[in-house]
Design a protein that fits this description.
The complex is a heterodimer of chains A (481) and B (449).
Chain A (H helix, E strand, L loop, with lengths): L2 H12 L4 E17 L2 E19 L2 E7 L4 H19 L15 E4 L12 H15 L4 E19 L4 E18 L5 E6 L6 E3 L3 H7 L1 H16 L2 E2 L3 E7 L1 H13 L4 H4 L29 E4 L20 E6 L2 E2 L20 E2 L8 E2 L4 E3 L6 H6 L3 E13 L5 E13 L2 E7 L2 E5 H6 L1 E4 L6 E10 L4 E9 L2 E8 L5
Parallel strand pairs in A: 4-6, 9-19, 10-17
Antiparallel strand pairs in A: 1-2, 1-5, 2-3, 5-6, 6-7, 6-8, 10-24, 11-12, 11-16, 12-13, 14-15, 17-18, 18-19, 18-20, 20-24, 21-24, 22-23
Helix pairs in contact in A: 1-2, 3-5
Chain B lengths: L2 H13 L5 E17 L2 E19 L2 E7 L4 H17 L27 H4 L3 H17 L3 E17 L4 E16 L4 E8 L7 H14 L10 E6 L1 H15 L2 H5 L20 E3 L21 E5 L2 E2 L6 H7 L21 E3 L6 H6 L3 E15 L4 E14 L2 E5 L3 E6 H6 L1 E12 L6 E17 L2
Parallel strand pairs in B: 7-12
Antiparallel strand pairs in B: 1-2, 1-4, 2-3, 4-5, 5-6, 7-17, 8-9, 8-11, 9-10, 12-13, 13-14, 13-15, 15-17, 16-17
Classes of the chains: A alpha+beta (481), B alpha+beta (449).
Chain lengths: 481, 449
Amino acid sequence: MDKFTERVIAGAKSLSASYCDCRLVDMEREDVSVVGGAPRAVVHAHQRGFGVRVIVNGAWGFSSSSVVDDAEADRIVEEAVRIAHASALAKKKDVVLAPISSSEDMIPHQADVDPFTIPDSDKIGLLAEATRAMMLPGVVLARGQMQFLKERKTFASSEGAYIIQDRIESGAGISAMAASDEGGVQIRSYPMSFSGDNAQSGWEFVDAMKLLEHAEPTAREALALLSAKACPSGFKDLVVGGQQLALQVHESCGHPSELDRVMGMEASFAGTSFLTPDKKGSFRYGSDIVNLTADATIPHALGGLAYDDEGVRGRKVYLVRSGVFEHYLNSRASAPVVGEEPMGAMRADGFARSPIVRMVSINLEPGDLTFEQLIGGVEDGLYVDGIKSWSIDDRRLNFQFGSEIGWEIRGGKLQDMVRNPTYTGVTYEFWRSCDGIGGPELYHVWGVDNCGKGEPMQVAHVSHGTSPARFRHVQVGVLHE
Amino acid sequence: MSRELLYGLMQDALKASDADQAEIVAMKSNSALTWYAENIIHQNVAEHTAQVQVRAVVGKKVGSASTTDCSPEGLTLVVQQASQAARLMPDDPDFPGLPPPSLPVGTPATVGGWVAATAASEPRERVLAVKKIIERAERDDLRAAGTYQVQDSELAVVSSMGVSAYHQYTVAVLKAVVMGDDSSGYGLMSSADVADIDPEAVGEQAVRTAVETRHPIEVEPGAFDVVLSPFAVEELMGMLAYLALSARSVEEHTCFLEGHEGEQLASPIVSLYDDGLDPSGMPIPFDFEGMPKRRVDFLTEGRGGNVVYDSYYAAKMGRATTGHSLQQPNDMGPYPLNIFMGAGDSSEADMVSHVERGIYVTRFWYGNPVEPRRAVVTGTTRDGTYLIEDGRKTRGLQNMRFTQGLVDMLAHTVEISRDRAVLASAFGIGAMVLPSIRAEGFQFTGVTR
């Protein structure tokens, strides 16, 4: 243990903490944004600080600071203990942590080429060229962005854990917005909307995206959407592309599986969950072919981790196996309540926030169909992809999602393009209607860097492995045009 | 760290810059939050953070760097890093240069908004307030969840152009979601002064709603007359701000005001504006470029007005900055952090009494755009949805999904309350000040289970 974390742990113990952990985080970020060939924002950010979590008198306290020195360590420990004493004024029972084996470990990052060694001018140059290539007549806005993260996190606990984890993340994406004289606006993105695709990889991940090659085709799809027909309304068979399905998995499986949410801890912000403990082991979440995992061990996945922020080793569990709900995302304090072992899903956003239950990589296991077989099995339906809009209720049941692009399917073949496709449903009815999943060759792990949860808000970097999948009798084209 | 010391450090760091222009923005915050659920406190946290962001300009090149290290050495280093970053950047032909000061140098505007008692509040006080809500919920066999957050923050901006601005403010927000087996209710109070926060009132409001909406029934989706509480209006106005009230939305063609200045776009009773200086909200006298806040009228008696600008978009679009820059550089563009809807002459009770059959919405949740150009958004109701029959809230409803054009809703707004709620922003700076409204023909498109 280093002297700083040692001082924190010893200080907490001397103030009667029955448990203490300290996270010391040193993080660099770079965000690059280019619009229409010109740099819009390039931000280099460095943050360093520490957070201290204690249990005193059976209750939690936490404090954090961006000043890392001995005097501040003593002050923050004292404050965390004082907060815990205050918490105990309203406690009903003592916090109990599931036992774990404490580790001493050093985890290297997974990047081949450190993206922070690539000059800004190269990053801007690539995005500038890609966004210029998208500026076809009718395209009113072409955006490109990259984001990189380099972090060293040191975790120490009063149980003897001492873990240093290095992490490098890289991500990028481009998008084209086209507008018509009639007031229509359409957007198309590559490889994924919002901040693009992200992974625990280096510059090689961005390089492999081949942004330049995809720039013009992406813009042409945005233009084509302007004159595409409106999304039909009604109940149809639906093939959901892998990118859109990542969102579906995120919202309708990942979040409702968070045990803190199930236990009501998120009720005042994002709501609760329909996956109550009485459903564990018996609830028919999806059809027999639906297998959903929480897997922190997938190499390069953005949601992967070796250890979580409680020092628990990340592993793979089945949230849903053969369609039946089986396991939660959990923490050391919550896992025993439902008879589970901690599985490594407690994560904090930076040094300043206390860890909460988060997704890792939540994945729909691939099936065995080709894309042609998925489409070929639909007589009258819709194929949609490209995340555009999402909304789900506070129990994660009723959802309505919009995609960037869609195509009608008739007679087992893709037909006309449709604009503004939407679909809506109830989580378990939707997943129970799944009768085909694309095979491993269609599988991709999407990195999502904007998952918000908690109060104060924490943003987590998670991922979702998906192949396209087919769902029967889904309500599409919610009337709005 | 005192204001003078912070200013001194920033000015010294500015002198260390070898860029043509430099700007330093410092944000310091001491905040604490007590988080409770299922009638227990499950997290109780504090954080002491600082962030210094530097923009350096060399010709038309702009570089930036930020750090959490506020020591003299840390500030000098980050100033140098920004300058180095600028030299490696390509020219940004659209960059207009850092803005010159609009305020007399050394005399930043003061608007109040800092209360010593809030800054000095202790975790014990938060816990005891939360206990009152929990005990109130328990009396009706209900489960309480929520947060009690206090924040003491400083924002300072200095630049080589002579900008020098400082603001310190406090925020206290107490929130309760109280749940029964098949219903829930909501209460929230926010103020710069912790003494304004009344836990009994927050708890009572949430409990009353949860009790009144027990055993909810389902109604067929369709168009309904609605009465929306200020909490519900806040969710929708937040969406409108994101989609349509800034210069970036003009650039992205999602602004319904674009090309319609002076036209009647909404009901004549609807006025919507941003005013960072109005002390009835949570004022911020200047933006993250140190530019003074100017009132921007989006809708005046329903007629189309303007959007908010920062210096970048102002130069690009031939306008003046309105003092709505977020932290620069950013990809978000300018943003309204102090939205007000003008007060009307009604009350919630009057509005409900004027509805023959409709729906009262306490909150909306998870709004997201469906068709940005027309500000069509979708989301669901939560924490207290009532059926209104013959001018009375008669019973609870299952939560419902809506898919509604916001401009269309403002065009069909027929009543606005006199009373407005101050609703602190989730961004930790600014607030919306919003009334209850009654609107006709609001589109519900689904029912939740």
